[in-house]
Amino acid sequence: ATDTWIQKGDMPASRAAGFTSVVDGKIYLIGGYGGPQRVDAYDPSTDTWTVKSEMPTARRSLSTSALAGKIYAIGGAAASSASYTSLEPFSTVEEYDPAIDGWTTKSEMPTARVCHHANVVDGRIYIIGGSDASTDDNRSHVRTVEVYDPATDTWTQEGDMQASRAAGFSSVVDGKIYLIGGYGASQRVDEYDPSTDTWAMKSEMPTGRRSLSTSALDGKIYAIGGYLPGVSGHLGVATVEVYDPATDTWTTAPDMPTGRFGPRTGVVHGKIYVIGGMDKWVGSAYRTVVEYDP
User: Fold this and answer.
1) Is 133 left (phi over 0), alpha (psi -120 to 50) or beta?
2) How many CB atoms lie within 10 A of CB 31?
3) Which residues have a Cβ under 8 Å from the Cβ of 249 and sit 6 or more positions away?
4) How far apart (Å, rounded) are the C-alpha atoms in residues 199 and 150?
5) CA 253, CA 133: separation in Å to the nearest integer?
6) Alpha-carbon distance 252 to 288, whole Å?
7) What does the DSSP assignment read for 244-275?
8) In sequence order, what are the beta bridge partners of 19?
9) What distance in Å separates the CA atoms of residue 228 and residue 210, rounded to the nearest whole number?
10) Strands ordered across the beta sheet of 240-244
11) Which residues pair with 193 in a beta bridge?
């Protein structure tokens, strides 16, 4: 059946605010609450989890990107950061090689940050926005765009985005990066074209959200979960909305079975897997995994 949700086997430990990347049909969940150094691999073909070598630097609210069979864990906050207002952002970059289950330290990101966005286009990793905790209340959201080239282990800076953003999410379709929701503009959608280093505003997401997750599949972007700004308790929502860059329009998909704050997603063989998250900020983290078949 299509357009349906199915519950899968639980992961080994409750997790939230880590990050996921897909390599060779497996989803790797790295860091986060519940295991700031922990790495777990999920194989959707067998619905099983495997514990992998720990990340050297304990972190949550980092980003990861998969490129050429390796995963790059970039930035994030110290595991000791108790809340969004007591951040200790990192510039740390560590490379994980699933083939040997080992880690290597790489060149640091120029701007230490947390709750940022990471995407791969044409063999380079684009790090966009986030918070650098440079103000007294540690809520300084940045517009900075920095690009990492794993082939040379070097960083370069691109033009700033139009508005500072953090704790939204981003996905790539046809070589362009779409940044959706987050602090700074919970309904806003911006399209970044790395080939021209230019930004364009797109149609707003119907339900403004922060700490959501997005996944691109068949040319569309699925915006999943998160929480509604201005609502007491920061409760996770089950909302799923679908953006079509070709028409710059949004449609609604069936809700997840459970509302989630800070879920993580991965696409394998045409299905979206939603992993972990919390019931609210800061609440109880989930072990549950659900599969969505569009």
Assistant:
1) left
2) 28
3) 203, 243
4) 24
5) 35
6) 23
7) ETTTTEEEEEPPPSS-BBS-EEEEETTEEEEE
8) 30
9) 7
10) 213-217, 220-224, 240-244, 249-253
11) 198
CA gap 181, 179 in Å, rounded: 7
Q: Whose CA is closest to 162, among 147, 150, 137, 179?
A: 179
Quickly tell me which residue has 């630097």 as its tokens. Answer: 57
Token pair in block for residue 27: 């989803």
Which two structure tokens, joined as six digits, stand for 101? 């289950």
The string over 258-288, giving b where at least 16 C-beta atoms fall within 10 Å of a residue's C-beta and e elsewhere, is bbbbbbbbbbbeeebbbbbbbbbbbbebbeb
What is the pLDDT tens value at each position of the chain, 294 positions in all?
A: 689 999 999 999 999 989 999 999 999 999 998 899 999 999 999 999 999 999 999 999 999 999 999 999 999 988 765 555 567 889 999 999 999 999 999 999 999 999 999 999 999 999 999 988 755 554 688 999 999 999 999 999 999 999 888 999 999 999 999 999 998 889 999 999 999 999 999 999 999 999 999 999 999 999 999 999 988 888 999 999 999 999 999 999 999 999 999 999 999 999 999 999 999 877 789 999 999 999
Do 57 and 101 touch, CB atoms closer than 8 A? no
Contact 273, 42 (CB under 8 A): yes
Amino acid (one-letter) located at 173: V
Residue 230, C-beta contacts closer than 8 angstroms, at least 6 positions apart = none
